[in-house]
């Protein structure tokens, strides 16, 4: 008996109660081996009642509003963060602009200070270098006009030292560079109008295309200088030394070259219209295609000079020495004035007597 109760007691837990048991009426027929339907309907009803009693829709609606707030809050903080970043970026941009303006002002101040210092060095009258090369190069590089500067020194002092100075396109009109040492200097394309280079040393200097109109060049040394296309209009170059210079296509219109030395110089294509070439030494000079129209060649020495296609129209050849002149023709001679008084080779008598070359004066001890 006890054994039977032990076995049947646990089974009672799993047996459906009368409430759960299906209600089979007398007309219901079970097929052999068929299982009765499970009691799910009551459980679903209980879940529906639970949902209805808890008003879950309102809970979900409230949760939706909360979730919307949760979604908007990060967007707001993100907007605030981006706005802060924009403000910081604008402040940094403004600061960079201020830094640039400050740097420009500081650079301009330094340049101004250096310009003032360079002008002081350049204009102080002192022989030798004295820092003047760096000063004049800096001022010229900065585009400073150097018109009218006076770097001359006192009597008996050596001239200012500007040897090798690189100052192309310099504006030096009316400047006083008397006795200046400008060997190997670069003054190409410079404005040197009415400048004073008397007794200055420009040996080997580059003055290609320089404008020397009305310049004072008394005794200036241009030996081996580059003076291609230089303009010497009305320049006063009396006694200047232009030995072995390149003066191709240079302009000497109405220039005064009395007593100048132009031996072995290249004057091909040069314009010497109405130039004063009295007592000029053009020994072995290259004068091809040069224009000497109305030039004064009195006592000029053109010995062994190349005068191919030279225009001597109305040039004064009084006592000029044309001995050994290369490519000289009678037509060229006869276009000049006083050509009969010029010393020339026998082959160039051109129907007129040839004067004798005067003997050199004897030096009496």
How would you summarize the topology of this molecule?
Elements: H1 2-14, H2 41-54, H3 56-123, H4 132-141, H5 330-334
State the helicity in percent bands: 25-40%
| H/E element sequence | HHHHH
Determine the number of helices (DSSP H or I, runs of at least 4 residues): 5
Shape: elongated
Largest sheet: none
Structural class: mainly alpha
Cα-based radius of gyration, to the nearest Å = 55 Å
Total strands: 0
Question: Mean of residue pLDDT?
Answer: 85
Span between termini: 180 Å
Q: How much of the polypeptide forms β-strand, as a percent range? A: under 5%
Overview of the structural elements:
With 365 residues, the protein is mainly α. The protein has a domain at 52-123. It has helices spanning 2-14, 41-54, 56-123, 132-141, 330-334. Helix 3 crosses helix 4 (132-141). The radius of gyration is 55 Å and the shape is elongated. Mean pLDDT is 85; it is low at 1-21, 24-32 and 361-365.
């Amino acid at each position: 008996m006890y054994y039977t109760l032990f076995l049947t007691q646990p089974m009672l837990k799993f047996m459906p109660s009368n409430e759960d048991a299906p209600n089979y009426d007398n007309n219901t027929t079970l097929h052999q081996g068929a299982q009765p339907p499970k009691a799910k309907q009551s459980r679903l009803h209980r879940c529906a009642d639970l949902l209805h009693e808890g008003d879950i829709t309102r809970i979900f609606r409230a949760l939706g509003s909360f979730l919307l707030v949760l979604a908007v809050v990060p967007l707001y903080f993100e907007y605030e963060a981006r706005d802060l970043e924009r403000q910081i970026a604008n402040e940094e941009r403004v600061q960079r602009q201020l830094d640039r303006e400050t740097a420009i002002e500081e650079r301009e101040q330094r340049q101004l200070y250096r310009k003032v210092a360079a002008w002081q060095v350049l204009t102080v009258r002192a022989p030798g270098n004295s820092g003047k090369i760096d000063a004049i190069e800096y001022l010229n590089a900065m585009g400073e006009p150097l018109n009218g500067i006076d770097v001359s020194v006192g009597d008996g002092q050596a001239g200012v030292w500007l040897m090798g100075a690189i100052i192309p396109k310099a504006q030096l009109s009316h400047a006083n560079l008397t006795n200046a040492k400008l060997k190997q200097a670069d003054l190409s394309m410079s404005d040197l109008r009415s400048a004073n280079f008397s007794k200055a040393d420009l040996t080997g200097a580059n003055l290609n295309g320089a404008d020397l109109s009305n310049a004072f060049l008394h005794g200036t040394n241009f030996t081996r200088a580059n003076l291609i296309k230089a303009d010497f209009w009305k320049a006063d170059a009396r006694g200047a030394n232009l030995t072995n210079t390149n003066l191709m296509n240079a302009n000497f219109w109405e220039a005064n070259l009395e007593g100048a030395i132009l031996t072995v110089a290249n004057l091909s294509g040069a314009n010497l219209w109405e130039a004063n070439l009295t007592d000029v030494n053009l020994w072995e000079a290259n004068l091809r295609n040069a224009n000497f129209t109305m030039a004064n060649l009195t006592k000029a020495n053109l010995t062994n000079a190349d005068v191919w296609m030279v225009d001597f129209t109305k040039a004064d050849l009084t006592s000029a020495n044309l001995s050994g002149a290369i490519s000289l023709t009678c037509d060229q001679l006869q276009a000049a004035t006083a050509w009969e008084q010029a010393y020339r080779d026998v082959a160039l008598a051109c129907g007129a007597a040839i004067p004798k070359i005067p003997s050199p004066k004897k030096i009496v001890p």
